[in-house]
Amino acid sequence: MASYKIAVSGAAKVDHCCTGIEKLSEKVGREIAKNKCITVTGATTGAPYYAAKGAKKEKGISIGFSPASTEREHKNSYRLPTDAFDMIVYTGFEYAGRNLLMTRAADALIVICGRMGTLNEFTIAFEDQKPIGVLIGSGGTADNIQQVIQKPYRGKVEMVYERDPKVLVEKLIKLIKKDKKK
Q1: How many C-beta neighbours within 10 Å does residue 128 have?
Q2: Looking at residue 139, what DSSP letter applies?
């Protein structure tokens, strides 16, 4: 049985991400599943989608939170995938509302590459003081987070920065366990 829900936040369009982002993201999903955790994403394309696919390849559980109200809207209006998910929650709250629900539903967040939506999910997790893992070297938002939090940093948020998906997930799970004991 899965023990923790780990949200994967990242770029839906990966053209600005590092080379091999697909395999890197998939490995994150695989590692989440190998550790008996549930992969949670925004039910989108790109890095989160590859992570969901990786979780499924390891026979893990993958839950997507869609910005759409219905499956039809998810597929036809937003043009988002359904194949990598065991369950999709159709929030009907567009992207910003979906980001809030998806992030709050998880025990922790992993950031892979990313753009503005990823930054939004990161700040939600940061303000909620959830454990956060950042896959450094993946490009975009992930490679800028350390700089972003230097000046406005307040509070005590447990974060881990790693280049290796396996090590990142292992360290993040330790932070989740520590957070659950509080």
Answers
A1: 14
A2: B
Could you please report the per-residue DSSP string of 24-49? HHHHHHHHHHHTT-EEEE-S-SHHHH
| C-beta of residue 147 within 8 angstroms of C-beta of residue 99 | no
Other CB atoms within a 10 A radius of the CB of residue 16 amount to: 13
Work out the number of other CB atoms within 10 angstroms of the CB of residue 68: 21
Q: What is the mean pLDDT of each run of 10 residues along the chain (182 residues)?
A: 88 97 98 98 98 98 98 98 98 97 98 97 95 98 90 77 98 95 82
Residues 105 and 88: beta-carbon distance below 8 Å = no
The neighbouring-strand residues paired with 88 are 64
Dist CA 7 CA 83 (whole Å) = 18
CA dist 40 and 103 (Å) reads 9
State the DSSP H helix or E strand holding residue 104, giving kind and residue range, or none if neither: helix 94-105
- Spell out the domains of the chain, with CATH numbers in brackets: 5-181 (3.40.50.450)
C-alpha–C-alpha distance, residues 68 and 66, integer Å: 5
Q: Tokens 């992930």 label which residue?
A: 142
Per-residue CA distances from 142 to 61, 132, 155 (Å): 24, 11, 20
pLDDT digits (tens, 9 = 90+) for 148-158: 888 766 667 89
